[in-house]
Design goal:
CATH architecture: Up-down Bundle
Low-confidence stretches: none
Number of domains: 1
Helix content: over 70%
Order of helices and strands: HHHHHHHHHHHHHHHHH
Structural class: mainly alpha
Oligomer: single chain
Largest sheet: none
Radius of gyration: 20 Å
Shape: globular
CATH superfamily: Amino acid/polyamine transporter I
Number of helices: 17
Length: 389
């Protein structure tokens, strides 16, 4: 059980810790400096309210999110599936791009060649063995690698830790756009469903599993939040010295400035680990949102996931630079979160299968708080983005 709990937690965490994660954290740290710590703190609280409610609802019912939505209102699950798959696909193009950039840094091959090679590796991983076991093993090891190497860069960057901690609780400035983008990139769209869908695929369902499910969700949030915070410390250590980050690849500047040539090499490893694990997570979870449509889809799971990865790779090869796409995908997934969470909360009260279970009021209220906050902040974030153009 412990291995499965960590596997689901790392799947969710690694799905969020992709190239977009690295780009968004570095980008907004340069804008907000040590006050970005407050964005991370708020995102942790919002993440918990979202994840625990969604994971509990899915595992209590034993149904995937889109099946719950369709049971609540016919067709609603298809709409949710469409939004989640589109958001996952947008992120996956950025994930593939991140793989290409990482291999360019590590080996000198072109971005497109690196993306194609990484896409082939991701496809091979899905075909090698049973998908569930592969997800648990690969995501855990890649997560440990990313965290360990980033800690080395934090040490080399010499961040103002006391000031960062102080402004985490008492910020000097706040950006709604940053909050929505970071929460959307950490727990929005497909990400919040990845671990929960992994648990029901493994047969972890019913009320007697709720402590296990809550612990797994909480562990995933802590893993992704810890990685976010140490990357923030590394970035703020660099920008506090007056160094401007590269607009096209802000995270690379952080690693290279802190560690020189070896720092850039470490960034290549971290970026590739982040990107390939996110390709795996996005592909698996996006597929889980269409597998209910026909039994023939389930039988062709690996083929459809392969097609998803191939299309993502081809679009990157044709379109190119992913930074704006990654930032916009985070914003899009920030909109999907309150919509999907509201569906789960209403279902917990309306569906006979769910309302028979005692649902702690404080958990339900925390979920509605996320719906209201993220819904309103998403609207204001779009207004802020349009005003800055």
């Amino acid at each position: 059980m412990t291995g499965l709990s960590l596997g689901a937690a790392f799947l969710m965490a690694n799905s969020s810790i992709g190239p977009g994660f690295l780009t968004q954290t570095s980008f907004y740290t340069e804008q907000l400096l040590t006050s970005f710590g407050f964005v991370i703190l708020l995102s942790i609280l919002l993440d918990f309210g979202a994840q625990v409610n969604i994971w509990r609802c899915i595992t209590l019912s034993g149904m995937r999110a889109q099946e719950i939505a369709n049971a609540l209102m016919p067709g609603l699950g298809h709409l949710l599936s469409l939004l989640v798959v589109l958001g996952g696909f947008a992120f996956n193009i950025g994930n593939i791009a991140g793989c290409g950039l990482a291999l360019n840094i590590l080996t000198g091959i072109s971005f497109v060649q690196g993306a194609i090679l990484s896409g082939l590796i991701a496809i091979l991983i899905f075909w090698i063995q049973e998908i569930g076991k592969m997800l648990d093993m690969v995501t855990k090891y890649l997560g440990i690698i990313k965290i360990g190497l980033t800690l080395i860069i934090v040490y080399a960057a010499h961040p103002p830790i006391l000031q960062a901690v102080h402004h985490t609780f008492i910020p000097e400035k706040i950006s709604l756009l940053a909050i929505v983008t970071i929460v959307g990139g950490t727990v929005g769209g497909y990400i919040t469903f990845s671990g929960a869908h992994r648990l029901i695929d493994a047969g972890i369902t019913g009320p007697d599993q709720m402590k296990f499910v809550t612990k797994s969700a909480g562990t995933g949030i802590l893993i992704s939040s810890f990685m976010r915070f140490i990357l923030f410390l590394a970035a703020v250590g660099i920008v506090s010295k007056g160094i401007h980050l590269n607009k096209d690849n802000p995270a690379a500047t952080v690693f290279e400035t802190a560690g020189g040539r070896w720092g850039l090499f470490i960034f290549g490893i971290v970026l590739w680990s982040a990107a390939i694990s996110s390709v795996i997570g996005a592909s698996y979870t996006s597929f889980s949102f269409i597998k209910h449509l026909k039994s023939s889809i389930v039988k062709n799971e690996k083929t459809i996931i392969t097609l998803f990865i191939v299309l993502s790779t081809l679009i990157f090869a044709m379109v190119g630079k992913p930074k704006e796409l990654l930032l916009l995908a985070g914003l899009l997934n920030g909109f999907i979160l309150p919509f999907a969470l509201a569906i789960m909360l209403i279902a917990s009260r309306k569906l006979p299968l769910l309302k028979q279970f005692k649902y702690p009021l404080w958990i339900e209220l925390s979920g509605w708080a996320v719906v209201l906050l993220m819904g309103s902040m998403s609207v204001f974030a779009v207004i802020e983005k349009l005003a800055n153009k």
